[in-house]
Amino acid sequence: MEQQLQAWLRICSFFGSYVSATNCTDNDNTRDVRDQTNSRAYWLQRGYNCLLLLSICVIFGCSLYWHTVPPGLELNSIAVTILFATRLITNAFILMEAVWKQQQHADFLKTLQAIEASMQLRLKWRIDSATLLWQIKRLLKYHLAFSVLGIVPFMVATWVVRDYSGYFWQGLWYICSIRVRTLQLLIYLRILRHYLRDYCLQLQQLVAYRRTPQQRLLDFDYGRLGTLHQLLALKETYMLFYETFELLKDFSGWSLFAIIITSVLDLSSNFYWLLQSFDNFWGRRYYYLADLWWFLPVVALICELCYLCDNCRQLGGIVSLLLSRLIRLNSASTRRQYQLVLQQFAMQLQLQRIEITARAFFTLDFRFMMSVSLHVC
Which Pfam families does the UniProt record give (predicted)? Predict the structure, then answer.
């Protein structure tokens, strides 16, 4: 799983959304050749991101300078210019976060590995990595194919329509970079959701051990499950989950905020132009076909993003529900130290809720997805 994730992150590095190498500053006297190579690669990637940032700014400025507005399309021109500017800002956030939040991103990946190790070694739970890898590959194939099917008709339409007044070709890199960043976040959320589901199953078996013997699994060591050591392992593993989600919000909060805003503007604008094409505005009767194919991949990405974020939030609520059941089932004969850890765990869940926000501006869940749908329509 780690090798496949690194292969995907190398693609993200090409689009500037990930800086893999770390800057070595710990022991200068004992730094070996490998550390020097990593440091050199780190600075090369920082320079590459700075070059990308400079390039997209130059492209933006030149596009505005050479842009011509056809008569009668002044309002459309303002709309596409605003959308083009938001895509530039989103790309700038992605590139700057990759550089400035590189340590938080690296800590996030390390904490992901720590969660997997904790569940396998401390909780003795076998993680189905093959199923997780298959789900991630299916996710990538689905969204990449859907995005290509959406971009190609729009390319043909803008090539055929000679009086096209948008910034599609100048902003094609912006579009690809935003979608790669979104897919990167979707992969992280898929992995976290998979681990959270296994964690809930582990906690559910602890509840079954206390309450309903008929729901116990035959090949499960319930004698170990009811120990204080296992409860402490569950408590500390949840702490790792919370730290991972906080790191995710830290290194991707601004880009996530910009991606959502840009997607909402993109959907609103294309929905407006879709209605115009139905009315044969400016002689573009069949232009709605390209708009529709462009509309669907963006909707799929935003819906998938909100769906996974809401799933993770719900799984965090399930953890709280299962722990409350465990506290109610706790007998008076249980050791005082075990009861104390249960109370500490309950307080921890109240203070450390799992949710994904875009720099605290809004929380990504089903309610937010419905509000976006109402805004677009």
Answer: 7tm_7
Look up residue 161 and give its DSSP letter: -
Q: Burial code of 336-357, b = ≥16 C-beta within 10 A, e = fewer?
A: eeeeebbeebeeebeeeebebb
What residues have CB less than 8 Å from 375, skipping those under 6 apart? Answer: 264, 268
User: Measured between alpha carbons, how far is 325 from 209 in angstroms, rounded to an integer?
Assistant: 12
- Measured between alpha carbons, how far is 161 from 165 in angstroms, rounded to an integer? 9
Record the pTM: 0.89
SS3 state at 239: helix
**Measured distance CA(149)–CA(298) in Å, rounded:** 12
Percent helix, strand, coil in the chain, to 5, is 80, 0, 20
Distance CA 242, CA 314 (A): 14
Distance of CA 353 to the CA centre of its chain: 18
